[in-house]
């Protein structure tokens, strides 16, 4: 066992209990290295041994998948996040979003992506439309249009959220279930 791996294992054994008691989240950022001569499986590995992988509750693989450009100028990155390990929720989920330099994660870009996916925003060639409104030619122009028209962006967000909301529950039914289960000892 390498010295760095041994130190990581000893430190994480001590730190995890303290983190749990203080209800604190620790975020570790690590880089990938290439293993030489690997024919099967992923040739990528992280430094520091296996302790960090073992003690982690959630592990994310974050990768830039493309550069966003406005003409010839780079304005951001398209990023993919894969959940590699998750003890808190179902693992192996995946998300893609735009990160705009100087701004952060693009809410409007996510609205366009989700809107196209569920059919709220229509895409014909390079043109994006919402109902009778032309959002723009190309995703960057459509995103800029939504930034300039926040009311329209909020309307699109409302339709997207409405698509994913569960069926409304009858309050009388909820009260009856609560009353019935309150008498049961678990």
UniProtKB/TrEMBL annotation:
A GO molecular function held by the record: ATP-dependent activity, acting on DNA
Q: Which GO terms describe its biological process?
A: DNA recombination; DNA repair
Which InterPro entries does UniProt cross-reference here? DNA_recomb/repair_RecA (IPR013765), DNA_recomb/repair_RecA_CS (IPR020584), P-loop_NTPase (IPR027417), RecA-like_C (IPR049261), RecA-like_N (IPR049428), RecA_C_sf (IPR023400), RecA_monomer-monomer_interface (IPR020587)
Q: Does the keyword DNA-binding apply?
A: yes
Q: Name one Pfam family in it.
A: RecA_N
Q: Does the keyword Nucleotide-binding apply?
A: yes
Instruction: Report the transmembrane regions from the record.
Output: none
Q: Which UniProt keywords apply?
A: ATP-binding, DNA recombination, DNA-binding, Nucleotide-binding
* SUPFAM superfamilies, sorted: P-loop containing nucleoside triphosphate hydrolases, RecA protein, C-terminal domain
Domain RecA family profile, chain residue ranges per copy: 37-110
Q: Can you list the GO cellular component terms from the UniProt entry? A: cytosol
**Family classification:** Belongs to the RecA family.
PANTHER family found in the cross-reference section: MITOCHONDRIAL DNA REPAIR PROTEIN RECA HOMOLOG-RELATED, RECA
Q: What is this protein called?
A: Unannotated protein
UniProt organism field = freshwater metagenome
